From TrEMBL:
<feature type="domain" description="Tr-type G">
    <location>
        <begin position="8"/>
        <end position="223"/>
    </location>
</feature>
<keyword id="KW-0648">Protein biosynthesis</keyword>
<feature type="binding site">
    <location>
        <begin position="133"/>
        <end position="136"/>
    </location>
    <ligand>
        <name>GTP</name>
    </ligand>
</feature>
<keyword id="KW-0547">Nucleotide-binding</keyword>
<dbReference type="GO" id="GO:0003743">
    <property type="term" value="F:translation initiation factor activity"/>
</dbReference>
<comment type="similarity">
    <text>Belongs to the TRAFAC class translation factor GTPase superfamily. Classic translation factor GTPase family. IF-2 subfamily.</text>
</comment>
<dbReference type="GO" id="GO:0003924">
    <property type="term" value="F:GTPase activity"/>
</dbReference>
<keyword id="KW-0342">GTP-binding</keyword>
<feature type="binding site">
    <location>
        <begin position="79"/>
        <end position="83"/>
    </location>
    <ligand>
        <name>GTP</name>
    </ligand>
</feature>
<keyword id="KW-0396">Initiation factor</keyword>
<comment type="function">
    <text>Function in general translation initiation by promoting the binding of the formylmethionine-tRNA to ribosomes. Seems to function along with eIF-2.</text>
</comment>
<dbReference type="GO" id="GO:0005525">
    <property type="term" value="F:GTP binding"/>
</dbReference>
<protein>
    <recommendedName>
        <fullName>Probable translation initiation factor IF-2</fullName>
    </recommendedName>
</protein>
<feature type="binding site">
    <location>
        <begin position="17"/>
        <end position="24"/>
    </location>
    <ligand>
        <name>GTP</name>
    </ligand>
</feature>
């Protein structure tokens, strides 16, 4: 794999933001400009991700980037549709992404998913830049395809420029409201103290050279030491999705952030109950465009190195969870690795309080989404776990001091028979639903009725 020379891995960049603000378009534009300008195939499509090697970054960035100043291999972009799947982008260290690009439509400004994303970025301490997208929609905009933003900005009329300025300052104001000091990126000296705002257009490619330059520079300056990993060591990754795939059965779409995974490796995967211990049957990546007409969508490869997006086919994956860890056992003890995975699952990043309700959900992603909804509704959560409602959850609920907290809210889970009986005996109320907001609403109604 060309994207991992030496022992510096590719930084993982999450692209996130409100629906329709242009995340996918921006990635398409990066892919497209590189294919037109240079040799096709330099950019490789991964499962759930796109790898942009350094030579492509420097090609797109033109005079903005001198490739000899860098030794990181490039950037691996993850496109995150919708905010719920973004909440599954977690890893051992907290956030799966090393850096993030928060895409904001300059016309729309902050929207609910923008705020949701900011909150996750803040919680996980993930460094990010803001791509102020769709600058081409400013009335009267005169585009210069793929130009650096300052060049094209200066070529606009005063009227267009001041309209853009106004929108950018609104955005900077909104960022400030969210607790982040920010400025147009060329005025930022210290990217750790200030968020860089980069005006871009995914439609015309304007500002895309700047975006790649800033990301590459940030990664090189601030993240190089974190990228020094043992790339031949046992692989570690996060499950993005568990999917049925014809001819393979249940498969895992994984972002590998550390080490190497090989065909035949024993892996441990976080699951609903016990972690799954299984063996890699196939490692799959998407076929290159030229070969796409063949029946098979995937190419079976012998090994993959971090950072990468890949599909793992293996037996017994039925109970695997999106958002859960995947570990290659390597020459370690299986039991040790199982413990590691269990410990990680136990500490899902849900804020819990001393006093509150118990919540259970079917996946890590939905658990976090449920916990977020609870937080918005200001319902305190004492314990949040993945799995069916079991007697020990009832025992946990009985420790609540306030009777209105002697409850368990279950999202997409079953209630085990003995848990139901125990709940009856102990006077613990159970709520279950497969709609998050329904669950929150049912609980709120229950509280209101009690207080009447
Ligand atoms: P979700 O994945 O659904 O959350 O949306 P997204 O953020 O990936 O947005 P997407 O890239 O699908 O873009 C949404 C719409 O905005 C599409 O119709 C794009 O063509 C349009 N769009 C995206 N970027 C730009 C831009 O820079 N300029 C203009 N004029 N349109 C854009
Ligand atoms: Mg999209």
């Amino acid at each position: 794999e060309s994207e991992s020379p030496g022992d510096l891995r590719t930084p993982i960049v999450a692209v996130l933001g409100h629906v329709d603000h242009g995340k996918t378009s921006l990635l398409d534009e990066i892919r497209g400009s590189a294919v037109i300008d240079g040799e096709a195939g330099a950019i490789t499509q991964h499962i759930g991700a796109t790898a942009v090697p350094l030579d492509v970054v420097s090609e797109v960035a033109g005079s903005l980037v001198d490739p000899t100043e860098f030794d990181l291999p490039g950037l691996l972009f993850i496109d995150t549709p919708g905010h719920h799947s973004f909440s599954t982008l977690r890893s051992r260290g907290g956030a799966l992404a090393d850096i993030a690009v928060l895409v904001v439509d300059v016309n729309d400004g902050f929207q609910p998913q923008t705020e949701e994303a900011i909150r996750i970025l803040k919680d996980t301490g993930t460094p990010f830049v803001v791509a102020a997208n769709k600058v081409d929609t400013i009335p009267g905009w005169n585009p210069t395809e793929n130009a650096p933003i300052k060049q094209t900005y200066e070529a606009q009329t005063d009227r267009v420029r001041s309209q853009l300025d106004e929108k950018l300052y609104e955005l900077i104001g909104e960022l400030s409201g969210a607790g982040f000091s920010s400025d147009l990126y060329w005025r930022v000296q210290d990217f750790q103290a200030n968020i860089g705002v980069i005006p871009v257009s995914a439609m015309t490619g304007e500002g895309v050279p700047d975006l790649l330059t800033v990301l590459m520079g940030l990664a090189q300056r601030y993240m190089k030491s974190e990228m020094e990993v043992n790339i031949d060591g046992p692989g570690a990754g996060t499950v993005l999705e568990v999917k049925d795939e014809q001819g393979f059965g249940k498969t895992l779409d994984v972002i590998l952030y550390d080490g190497t995974v090989r065909k035949g490796d024993t892996i441990v995967v976080g699951a609903k109950n016990q972690p799954i211990v299984t063996e890699v049957r196939a490692l799959l990546k998407p076929r290159e465009l030229a070969e796409i007409r063949t029946e098979k969508r995937f190419e079976d490869v012998p090994e993959m190195q971090a950072a990468a997006g890949l599909k793992i086919a293996a037996p017994d994956l039925d109970d695997a969870m999106a958002g859960a860890p995947v570990r290659v056992v390597g020459d370690r003890d299986v039991a040790t690795v199982v413990e590691e995975v269990e410990a990680e699952l136990a500490e899902v990043a849900v804020e819990t309080a001393e006093e509150g309700v118990v919540v259970k959900a079917d996946t890590l992603g939905s658990l976090e989404a449920l916990a977020n909804a609870m937080q918005e509704a200001e319902i305190p959560v004492m314990s949040a776990e993945v799995g069916d409602i079991a007697p020990r959850d009832v025992a946990m609920a009985t420790t609540a001091d306030d009777d209105k907290h002697r409850t368990i809210l279950g999202f997409n889970v079953d209630v085990l028979a003995d848990a139901e009986r125990k709940a009856d005996e102990e006077n613990v109320r159970l709520f279950d639903s497969d709609v998050i907001y329904q669950l929150v609403e049912d609980y709120e109604t229950f509280v209101e009725e009690r207080e009447r």
